[in-house]
Specification:
Two copies of one chain form a homodimer. With 777 residues, chain A is α+β, with helices and mostly antiparallel strands. Among the domains of chain A are: 78-272, Distorted Sandwich (Beta-galactosidase, Chain A, domain 5), CATH 2.70.98; 727-775, no CATH class. Chain A is 32% helix and 25% strand. Chain A is built from 20 helices and 33 strands. In chain A, the strands form eight sheets. The first copy, chain A, has a ten-stranded antiparallel beta sheet with strand order 1-2-8-9-10-11-18-15-14-13, covered by helices on one side. A five-stranded antiparallel beta sheet of chain A has the order 7-6-12-17-16, with no helix packed on it. In chain A, helix 10 crosses helix 13 (540-551) and helix 11 crosses helix 12 (528-538). In chain A, 52% of the residues are buried. The mean pLDDT of chain A is 96. Chains A and B meet through strand 13, strand 16 and strand 20 of A and strand 13 and strand 16 of B. Chains A, B: It holds the Pfam family Glyco_hydro_65m. Chains A, B: Belongs to the glycosyl hydrolase 65 family. Chains A, B: It comes from Lacticaseibacillus mingshuiensis. Chains A, B: Keywords: Glycosyltransferase, Hydrolase, Transferase.
Chain lengths: 777, 777
């Protein structure tokens, strides 16, 4: 596989682009993306290239282009691009000669640096740039570009500014609003989204070095949606021309901004620019790096001692990107399926949050997990509207979720059907209904793991109850079989678009209904005040009666004579097909070049973990033998065409005790974004897969699990790992855990409560600040 | 001056780009633009580059992005761009080596061709492309690309399709509508403008050569606003891989389409694609070239025998672009200030039509001139609304005009004010009021030159009368001087933004009022039926009374003691400034880098012909001495910062008998687009200047003039010209005129009426088919 990616030896914090290749712009724009959960910026190069995707997003600022499109995160004006003309020639790495090229993301400091030597027409120029999005001051981003003519004086012409001609693949969300140039080269551009009417104000201060540099003419132009300044200078040989751009961004949706009208935002932007003037790029970068250490690396350390430093890099890379993509500051927002690093999935939130990312937050930053699930509570209005629009009761969560009020945000039309020539209808927004149970699952996990009663009482319980109500209203009665069924759904395996009794969906629905029933009973018995309050709002008697009546009559697909759980009513009778001809590098990629979805629907082919995911989430409900038999049946039929698939298979293989297979799957999953495949990340980072790097590490190899409120830790370290050390929060106690092949050590760093857990050899209690050591070998 | 433009020797039909230079994309995109008056396409290269402006427009399909922006011609989906990957390397002329490069526009056939040899990684590929927009079938455009691996077999991967991710500098006008792939690689994409709700349907058929080519996998993708097919093939050494793309476009605004709903347009597109299938690229190109000959070159030939073939090329180049930019098929549209070749001025129509382009059409294609002025009649509604909105009566024409119903379409905000840092307000839409008289002037010229009574009676007279009414209501009474004045206007010299009694405006206004008065009298005396009909509509008695009362009291700036006509009340008392420091290559370019508009307003500096234009349009009203004195006064103060300036100065200098100066000005004006300046045409062609090439030729050097209904021909050939031969229509007779330094020959090719004209030595009559020869030397 042709690749330009490099992993500096023995360095678990850096990832590099070793040579510039214009074919691979998208890869690095995504994996080198910067951000702080509020603001995310793809790492487009300073100079522009055909095919670049120069995206910057601010979480939660959704806008809809027209009524036929769904809402999406708009690509805001860019401040990173520059045009550099050196001695009359525009800097373009496709021309001249490039040597000593390096671009490196340091995930520890959140800084992206780039350097190279450019030779053109016999003259050499040393280029160095660095940039970051502040992790300390969320509205601030900065860029510094240094250009040194090596041996002869040079003339430079540099154009930089605020460029609102950006689009989302041709979709323009902003009006052409006010631009203004202030003394001291402070540029300010305002823009307003068209439909959602959110104001954005970007303010940039441009600074220049003076030693060996003679500045010439400056010209500022106000073009359409653009405010650009062009600077000229003569540079003495050996002296760097240094351009620094300190930018701040505010929007009328910001939770930390009080006055949200345009002129207040403009004043705020100017004020911030003024306040930043005394601080150098280095100072601001250091302060940001310190925030990374304080909030992430030192606060909740995870270390992996392994044969290859790439595994340790993977967990750091994953945690970096989780911090970059997660709007931890604002419960009205959630994580997009591509984070803030690309236009894929339009910034929308899926079940990925609850099933694949929430575990990291529950165990590492429970206060962030709380915000992510508060978002679901705040979205109840849209969920209730969706249920009602579809003729159901309670709360039916949208498959794709954007702003809390938006409700269902899944687009209706997708890729070409190669047989009919028409666009394919996307059914997920209509019938991929397991999301509603997934939300309840996530909320329950959060409550169980944290014991956060305040959240449960004010938000979580209401979601659990009204999702249970949805399922009760959703069931289809089968008069012949005298049972309830769930017909015409899409399960996690999206190749099967109109499945009946999808095992995952039915099991999750029943579990959700049972959770509601149990909660009603528990509240009536133990929390009469809350019971009364919720009964007033939600009519719990009626709910209990309806759910009770139906729950036992709901059909659940159970293991058949061969111990295989049928994925749905028809799957096991469909055509068997050999996937080998469609497999390249161990990945099925070309199936849809040969078949359309209707044809794939008729085959025993699965996109991603479906029954396997069910067995993972409800591991206690199924025997090891059933797990093994289903693994043997479904894994060879799975294309892993979704980035959500491999991580579950990794953990499942680890649970089954197959360390080699688990590590093989881990490596494939780890490499979805970070690996050498240069084309897989163009649309943005795979958020769930990034969350999965933590899950594979802590759940899969670390063997941590929380089941029905109980903590279990049974290490499964692969042979290539020598020690895994991490910290987790459990019931408001912070635990430090170290695992080797020989021993498991657990210490309660908080030490204010006893911790019960299951592990090899039985149940244990960790008391106070004691360290518990369990021998494994 | 660094340039890559070439004029093939002794060839008055071709203009070439000699080497590829990515700095000059915009120049060639504009001057090589293709079109047929319905559809115009900038000549972006087949492969994409940073900085390209890939525009395609359809005349009259205006859309407004939001209520704060003015309406503009939307950039429709592109069909010319391809991505070509040869043996794994993307074709990009910034990489590898390029030799034998040539791109040539043949203005005679309307075909653009390009060829080069590309060497990459030791392999050579011969690239040839050609394209045209059909001049025969206005909905059709075609492109052919041929790639031949010179010495070794090669693999190609070519992506082409319909790309609706185009924007107007970031402004998206279209929704993401239906895409569809039909058998035989017929691609169809529909799109609808957001505000004006105009449907566009583009249908492309892709064809491939088969000899020496083994086609591989084809993949069609429906992306956002995109329908793209990727083709792969193995090519034998020495064999061309030929890709042909035959596209047709329809819109719901098309005058020749009856059923304008989306599905009818889609059916029409498919039907046209089907009908075009039997025809090769060559056949369609030949048919288009024949239409160019039939409608332009053979129908109304103009030849120049000069020292340099570049002067003959200039008139052909100008007539080519006039045909490309003029929507001669539809009177609901007019010519944009940048034609259909760029986003500059948003496709809007200015006074340029009447003053600088209409003369060509009146004398060469009077039926087109009629459509251009019919547009003004159809726009009366908006003009009356504008008058009423401003508190005036009658019809006040918009400074910038778009769709006939739109009314005033001038944007309100322009470039940065370098002193305040704010955007500059554009006052033209409010107070550049001479446009209303300019429209009346054009209509009167058309009627005088053609004698088209049907147009006069049904349309022209109404415009003349209601513009006269506007002026009567517009005048400002000066009680001190007991006279009417016109205060607070912008004249042609747009440096003076709030001028009082601008000479051009006052003279034009008075002339317009007098024209109305004369018309009322004439109608009453000679056309009682029309008089009654118009009186019923427009209350002619009241109009006559009001205009009569005011017209004699309107102050007209007359020559002062030095024979200088004051440009306005204050001009002659403003500061004198030496323009030399701001002059580069004979052109004042950098004035606004040093002063803002308020400062320039205080100087005796003029942007473009203002008093000089007045003297040209009303040459009979002023003595030769006055003309000379004003020339000597104003010319040195004129920056010619508008492309509308030099051409008037050329004709004026020719009239004054200064052949050398006239030819110098001519060369500068001729070269505004066609010349070696690589940056002047980025925003699109200078339509008025292009019209001026004909005016300088036929009016300036040919000495043709029509004054108060009389034809005059007094040749002024420059020394470098040996013979000028052209044809004109005059009073429905087609005249063939040949001029040398010795003689003027006139023959009436129609010969159905006698023609009176003035020339050297007195008045002449041309009878029947006789040739009149007048000796000059």
């Amino acid at each position: 596989m042709e690749t330009t990616i490099r992993y500096p030896k023995d360095d678990p914090w850096r990832i590099s682009e070793a040579t510039f290749d214009p074919r691979f712009l998208g890869k690095y724009e995504t994996i080198f993306a910067l951000g702080n959960g509020y603001l995310g910026a793809r790492a487009a190069t300073e100079e522009r290239y055909v095919g670049e995707k120069r995206d910057t997003f601010i979480a939660g600022t959704f806008d809809r282009f027209d009524r036929d499109e769904v809402t999406e995160l708009p690509n805001i004006p860019d401040v990173f691009a520059v045009t550099v003309i050196l001695d009359g020639q525009q800097l373009d790495l496709n021309q001249g000669e490039v040597s000593e090229y390096d671009r490196t993301l340091n995930v520890k400091t959140g800084e992206l640096t780039r350097s190279f030597l450019w030779t053109y027409a016999g003259k050499q120029y040393r280029f160095q740039s660095s940039r970051f999005v502040s992790f300390k001051q969320r509205h601030v981003l900065a860029e510094r570009i240094s250009i040194t003519p090596v041996a002869a004086n040079a003339n430079i012409r540099l154009t930089a500014g605020i460029d609102g001609q950006m689009t989302n693949n041709g979709t323009q969300h902003f009006n052409d609003d006010v631009k203004r140039l202030y003394p001291g080269q402070v540029l300010q551009l305002s823009a307003k989204t068209d439909q959602s009417e959110i104001y954005f104000v970007l303010t940039s201060e441009h600074r220049f070095s003076t030693e060996g540099v003679t500045m010439g003419k400056t010209k500022t132009e106000m073009l359409r949606r653009q405010l650009m300044s062009t600077y000229t200078a003569d540079i003495e040989a050996g002296h760097p021309f240094v351009f620094t751009n300190i930018t701040n961004v505010y929007t009328s949706r910001d939770i930390d901004v009080i006055y949200k009208d345009r002129s207040s935002l403009q004043a705020q932007g100017l004020e911030t620019a003024e306040a930043l003037k005394p601080f150098s790029y280095e100072t601001l970068q250091k302060e940001s790096a310190q925030a990374w250490a304080d909030k992430i690396w030192d606060a909740m350390p995870i270390t992996i001692d392994a044969d290859e430093s790439r595994d340790a890099l993977a967990i750091n890379f994953a945690r970096y990107h989780l911090a970059v993509m997660t709007p931890a500051h604002d419960p009205r927002m959630n994580i997009g399926a591509k984070g803030l690093s690309g236009e894929g999935y339009k910034g929308h939130t899926f079940w990925d949050t609850e099933i694949f990312m929430l575990p990291y937050y529950i165990f590492t930053y429970p206060e962030v997990a709380k915000k992510l699930e508060t978002y679901r509570f705040l979205s109840l209005g849209g969920a209730r509207r969706k249920a009602s629009d579809n003729g159901y009761h309670g709360a039916q969560y949208p498959w794709e979720s954007a702003w809390i009020d938006d409700g269902e945000s899944t687009p209706v039309w997708g890729a070409t059907d190669i047989v009919t020539g028409k666009a394919t209808k996307i059914w997920s927004g209509f019938i991929e209904q397991h999301i509603t149970a997934d939300v309840a699952y996530g909320i329950n996990e959060y409550i169980q793991a944290t014991g956060d009663q305040e959240f449960a009482e004010t938000m979580g319980h209401e979601v659990i109850l009204d999702t249970a109500r949805f399922w009760a209203s959703r069931l289809d009665w089968n008069e012949d079989k005298r049972q309830y069924e769930i017909l015409d759904v899409i399960g996690p395996d999206e190749y099967k678009e109109h499945a009946n009794n999808n095992a995952f969906t039915n099991h999750m629905a029943k579990w959700n209904m049972q959770l509601g029933l149990d909660l009603i009973k528990k509240l009536r018995d133990t929390a009469p005040a809350e019971y009364t309050r919720l009964d007033d709002r939600l009519n719990l008697d009626q709910l209990e009666q309806e759910v009770s009546e139906k729950i036992d009559k709901l059909y659940l697909p159970e293991p058949n004579a061969n111990d295989v759980i049928p994925q749905d009513d028809d799957y096991l009778s469909k055509k068997l097909i050999d996937l080998a001809p469609y497999t390249v590098n161990g990945k099925v990629g070309s199936l849809f070049d040969h078949f359309n979805l209707d044809q794939v629907d008729q085959m025993q082919v699965t996109k991603q973990a479906d029954v396997i995911l069910l067995l993972f989430l409800f591991e206690k409900h199924f025997s090891k033998d059933v797990k093994l038999k289903n693994w043997e049946y479904y894994e060879p039929k799975t294309t892993h065409d979704s980035s959500l698939s491999l991580l579950t298979h990794t953990i499942f293989a680890a649970d089954l005790g197959d360390k080699k297979m688990a590590y093989d799957f881990y490596q494939r999953a780890r490499d979805i974004d970070m690996g050498p495949n240069m084309s897989s990340s163009d649309e943005g980072i795979h958020a769930a897969s990034i969350g999965g790097i933590w899950s594979m590490t802590v759940f899969g190899f670390g063997g941590v699990r929380y089941l029905d409120g109980n903590l279990r830790i049974v290490p499964n370290l692969p042979d290539a790992w020598h020690e895994l050390s991490f910290q987790i929060w459990w019931h408001q106690q912070k635990l430090a855990i170290t695992e080797t092949h020989d021993a498991l050590k657990i210490k309660n760093l908080t030490g204010t409560a006893d911790i019960q857990l299951d592990s090899v050899g039985g149940s244990y209690t960790v008391s106070g600040h004691d360290e518990l050591v369990i021998k494994l070998a």
